[in-house]
From TrEMBL:
Organism: Gymnopus androsaceus JB14
Protein name: Zincin
Residue ranges crossing the lipid bilayer per the database entry: 44-64
Domain Peptidase M13 C-terminal stretches: 616-822
Residue ranges of domain Peptidase M13 N-terminal in the record: 104-544
MF (Gene Ontology): metal ion binding; metalloendopeptidase activity
Coiled coil: none
Gene Ontology CC: plasma membrane
InterPro entries xref list: MetalloPept_cat_dom_sf, Peptidase_M13, Peptidase_M13_C, Peptidase_M13_dom_2, Peptidase_M13_N
Keyword Cytoplasm: no
Cofactor(s) required, per the database record: Zn(2+)
Domain of life of the source: Eukaryota
Keywords assigned by UniProt, alphabetized: Hydrolase, Membrane, Metal-binding, Metalloprotease, Protease, Transmembrane, Transmembrane helix, Zinc
GO terms, biological process: protein processing
Length: 828
């Protein structure tokens, strides 16, 4: 076969794939059609083929065009459907979360979240799990990678960063070293317990002097973050000058979540058993230390140059060693549980004397009762406050105190007076043991005892424990959250995200101010004052400036007392608490400057990686940490109707808190006063009563065959804040035209819903959460936030725009008649 020449090959390569088999015929098809008219059938066939070709061309070109529009929205003013990878993933996420078998007008929570709820069964180690918890897990994984591989941060670290990362790494390692925790056993806890006992000394004194060491013991406990008998906090004096730090005296935290639990026999039975187990552990550990032949085995610490002779003569608990000859040995377990029963009875009396939580959360005027410090010291005579303050606040002695509930001090005095020193000491010891046992090794009996209580109160499966790394990162965040936040922000939160999130919040504030003119219950004078307050709100996005996330030296100074010993997790936790408490007591009597208000973020635990947001009415600012500015709440490239429905709602919620049942009582300078007119306050109260009644009608299953009604009073502030959803909707609508022109209102593929419907779906999706019955009961009793389902459906039923978007019938459950709607921010 002859070889083909190069020219021949090139000619063949350039030739069309479909060659004209009749090359000699050069007559065009058009000429042939003119020369020979076609039959009607042929005309029809030709038209049909042309239509097919046209449709094929459109279908071939359109996806490419749409993809370009999705990728480059800056240059395309009228984008339609985005087909980028990010858009497809977002669309798939929304579709997978839905349960379209549900009618959105009847059960919007399930419609928006049913798919997600089925796909994410509750983990055995958690009482509740939803999008907030899921995102918190993701954020922890980011920090975990940083802690386990510090080389990932070498692109911007300094010598100060080396110091921070070493402290962070040591803290994390000490928590992860479970073998070391188990090896130490109860040793670190017993150091704290013995300190409390040696300071108290109540049992060694005559009955009339049994309170001699109570102030010292309480000062020590409170400095370690251990709640007992009462609490002191350093906050602004909101009735005079919110920038001036004063002392607030309040009721204490309880061993059980709320006073209702102390009235349940089955709950108290379990709690009493846990208290008894902790007392028995403390007793046995003390006896073991006494009988040890090696001084190095003694784990107790020296206080005031006095080595504690315990156990021994007058040992504690008060049993054993004193039996007369011929007597039966005292049953230690029986005695322990008898003492435990007295401790629970003592706590029950404290709980009954405490103020109800709905007043604590919702009435800042009722809980603001300034008084000379002498009012407190002359009422609660069992506590030597001069000694207490000399230990916790040696720099200054307060002359003024804010009492959140004045009757509590008198009630506590009466309770203490009739209680034996044995019971008071056992109460102090078990409050410490219950609070600190979770930081011990999981093989210790104290850890197992407190875990029993956790499982009962949350419904967590017995023996189910989550990933140790997740727990340890959480402990790092609690103790060194601003330090870890520096590296979290570097990994996840850029300037463009900060800019867009700030713009969204600002837009919502401006929309809110404009909407005030249309509120039927607010008169012109109050509207003007409310507008000024809204305008004065400072917006904080991403991370604080004090300590400055961008300045590692600032963070080092902030955590001056926090250790990071890789072998001592228990002590690391306490050093973090001690640093925090010491810092706050140092502020007593001082005047804050503007930048120092940033530090207040820590009191709300608002470290940068936290999935939360907050409002501070006394300081008049809102904060949105970088931790919540992540999917499914926020992404800088998402369409407007999605981000305004999710993070926009969060911003509107926090803004509305400034004008809820409690926030409305602070003026724009953070001073507590009635700055609305009487008629406006009366109109607001009508709306508040409406929403209290609405949410009080909702019930949950208690898991025992009964139902529990929501506490509409307790949750009214949060429910009013949730009504701010309409402000997010209005803000989205207000910027829609410009956003559309900029290409930021593009559609997502495969979603047969309008932008308005997707706004509400975006809002509802963030509340998806599976919860155990026990955890739900605890939430209803203690949490000012309503359960997720009611936060969704209770809110949209008060927003007529929701029913309009989904074309709900007038008889639909979530489209009640106007007279039954609780509309705060409109003329209805």
């Amino acid at each position: 076969m002859a070889e083909r020449s190069a020219s021949t090959e090139q000619e063949q390569e350039d030739a069309p794939l479909l060659q004209d088999l009749h090359a000699e015929n050069t007559t065009s098809i058009l000429d042939q059609m003119k020369a020979k008219p076609m039959m009607p059938f042929h005309k029809f066939l030709l038209i049909f083929v042309l239509i097919l070709l046209l449709l094929s061309s459109v279908l071939f070109i359109l996806p490419y065009k749409l993809e370009l529009k999705g990728r480059d929205r800056e240059g395309e003013a009228h984008s339609t459907v985005c087909l980028t990878e990010e858009c497809i993933m977002l669309s798939a996420s929304i579709l997978s979360s839905l349960d379209t078998s549900k009618d959105p007008c009847e059960d919007f929570y399930e419609f928006a979240n049913g798919g997600w709820l089925r796909a994410h069964p509750l983990p055995a180690d958690k009482g509740g799990f939803g999008h907030f918890e899921s995102l918190a897990q993701d954020n922890k994984r980011v920090i975990q990678r940083i802690l386990e591989d510090t080389t990932s941060t070498t692109s911007f670290v300094t010598s100060d960063d080396d110091q921070l990362l070493t402290k962070l790494g040591g803290f994390y390692s000490s928590c992860m070293n479970e073998s070391r925790l188990d090896e130490r056993g109860h040793e670190p806890l017993m150091v704290v317990i013995n300190n409390i006992r040696q300071l108290f000394k109540g049992r060694k004194e005559p009955e009339e002097n049994k309170f001699k060491g109570l102030a010292a013991a309480l000062a020590y406990m409170h400095s370690q973050g251990l709640g007992a008998l009462f609490s002191f906090d350093i906050e602004g004096d909101v009735g005079v000058d919110s920038d001036h730090m004063v002392l607030w005296f309040s009721q204490p935290s309880l061993g059980l979540p709320s006073k209702e639990y102390y009235e349940e026999d089955d709950t108290c039975e379990v709690y009493q058993d846990v208290i008894g187990r902790l007392l028995l552990i403390v007793s046995e550990e003390g006896e073991q230390a006494l009988h040890s032949q090696s001084e190095s085995s003694l784990v107790f610490v020296q206080i005031n140059n006095a080595w504690p002779p315990w156990p021994g003569p007058g040992h504690w608990p008060p049993w054993g060693g004193d039996e007369e000859e011929g007597q039966e040995p005292i049953n230690k377990t029986q005695k322990v549980h008898k003492l435990a029963k007295e401790v629970v009875k003592f706590e029950r009396e404290i709980a009954r004397a405490s103020l109800d939580l709905d007043i604590v959360y919702q009435d800042p005027i009722a809980t603001y009762n300034p008084a000379p410090i002498s009012n407190l010291t002359s009422t609660l005579l069992q506590i030597q406050f001069e000694e207490y303050f000399s230990r916790v606040a040696p720099k200054n002695f307060p002359d003024r105190v804010i009492l959140t509930y004045p009757p509590y001090a008198q009630s506590l005095s009466e309770i203490l007076e009739k209680t034996s020193a044995d019971v008071i000491e056992a109460y102090l010891v078990t409050r410490a043991a219950l609070s600190l046992s979770s930081y011990l090794g999981m093989s210790t009996e104290a850890w197992k005892a407190q875990r029993t209580l956790v499982e009962m109160l949350t419904g967590v499966k017995k023996g189910a424990v989550g990933e140790r790394s997740e727990y340890c990162v959480g402990q790092v965040e609690e103790a060194l959250g601003f330090a870890a936040g520096r590296y979290f922000v570097n990994e996840t939160f850029g300037d463009k995200s900060k800019e867009k999130a700030t713009r969204i919040v600002t837009n919502i504030v401006q929309t809110f101010r404009k909407s005030l003119k249309g509120i039927d219950w607010m008169d012109e004078q109050s509207e003007k004052a409310a507008s000024e307050k809204a305008e004065a709100i400072r917006v904080k996005v991403g991370y604080p400036l004090s300590p400055n996330t961008m300045d590692p030296a600032s963070i080092i100074a902030y955590y001056r007392l926090v250790t990071g010993d890789k072998d001592k997790f228990f002590e690391n936790v306490l050093s973090g608490t001690l640093s925090d408490r010491s810092r706050h007591w140092d502020e007593l009597g001082t005047q804050r400057n503007v930048d120092a208000w940033e530090v207040f973020m820590y009191r709300w635990k608002m470290y940068p990686s936290m999935v939360d947001a907050c409002i501070n009415p006394p300081a008049n600012w809102m904060a949105f940490p970088a931790g919540i500015l992540q999917p499914p709440f926020f992404h800088r490239d998402w369409p407007g109707y999605i981000v305004y429905g999710a993070i926009g709602f969060v911003a509107a919620h926090e803004l509305t808190h400034e004008f809820d049942s409690a926030g409305r009582l602070y003026n724009q300078k953070g001073k507590l006063e009635e700055w609305w007119t009487n008629s406006t306050s009366e109109g607001f109260q009508v709306k508040q009563d409406c929403i209290i009644h609405q949410f009080s009608e909702y019930t949950i299953d208690d898991g025992k065959g009964g139902e529990i009604h929501l506490n509409g009073n307790l949750t009214s502030g949060e429910n009013i804040a949730d009504s701010g959803l309409i402000q997010a909707y209005r803000a989205w609508k207000a910027q829609y035209d410009s956003s559309y022109e900029a290409g930021d209102e593009y559609l997502l593929p495969g979603l047969p819903y309008s932008r308005e419907q997707l706004f509400f779906i975006s809002f509802a999706r963030i509340w998806a959460k599976n919860t155990m019955h026990a955890a739900l009961v605890q939430q209803v009793r203690t949490d000012p936030h309503s359960p997720s389902k009611f936060r969704v459906e209770g809110t949209v039923s008060n927003v007529p725009e929701f029913a309009e978007a989904f074309k709900c019938s007038p008889t639909a459950k979530l489209n009640p008649p106007p007279e039954k709607q609780c509309i705060f921010w409109g003329s209805s």
